[in-house]
Amino acid sequence: MTLKPTFITLRRVRSIVQKRRLLHFLSFFRVVSVNPVVQTDDEYNVGSEEINPDMEIWRKLMSRQKDILTTGEVAKICNVAPRTVSKWFDSGQLRGYRIPGSKDRRIPLSALIKFMKAHNIPMDALQSGRTRILIVDDESEIVDVLQKVLTEQANYDVAVAHSGFSAGLECEKFRPSVILLDMHLPDVSGEDVLKLVRENSDLQMTKVIAMSGKLTDGQAQHLMNNGFDHYLKKPFHVRQVIECIEAVAATI
Question: Quick one: CATH architecture of 40-121?
Fold first, then answer.
């Protein structure tokens, strides 16, 4: 009996090697396991789905993994701009991986938690997804009412600062989504606090609402033109505050 020689083209060999590499890569991130894969000639199957190097199928597989986040999702959790997350990734501070053939990055949840703990980023957003509000005002009565209503009725995470200095400390620790900022603080002006917020790359997504009892329409417009996201004229109704917060938070 004469055995017929089997010819395998170089192109076919490359295809098989590429698929093996892809499977090994996916198994590393626990998307699929190499062991249960059944090889049938030139196909690899997991269950009833064929795996091939096509990027759309690759993305579908990755989307099933609940503990893998995009840079946009990480940015929202940490209250920073997506480009800041990219900088963390590129510098090696935040561990993750790139999608083959793409600039897209993916961050494992475990790596994000480790990063957040190391940089004192509040874990509340990761657990509850609630909007974080920082109230900066030296009038205790106003602060007490706002804190109570925003926490109990609006279900926000709320922190308080009574001066510009303490506001800076709270911003670093609390990473607020929105700041309710009184314009007449005992140590610095509201404009000074706003400047510090805008210069902090970790607070790029933070919205700042000016509060004052001495605002004319012209002054209010001036504030909006110079970096504030909204304003509230004192005295105000609590419902106005919530509506204002919701308006600016919707743009984050």
Answer: Orthogonal Bundle (1.10)
Alpha-carbon gap, residue 96 to 98, rounded angstroms: 7
Using CA atoms, how far residue 100 sits from 65, 84, 252, in Å, is 17, 22, 29
Q: Name the pTM for this structure.
A: 0.58
The domain limits of the chain are 40-121, 130-249
Q: What is d(CA 190, CA 211) in angstroms, rounded to the nearest whole number?
A: 9
Lowest mean pLDDT among 66-80, 156-170, 208-222: 66-80
Q: Would you identify the CATH topology of the domain 130-249?
A: Rossmann fold (3.40.50)
Least confident residue range of 185-189, 201-205, 209-213: 201-205
In whole angstroms, what is the distance from residue 95 CA to residue 89 CA?
6
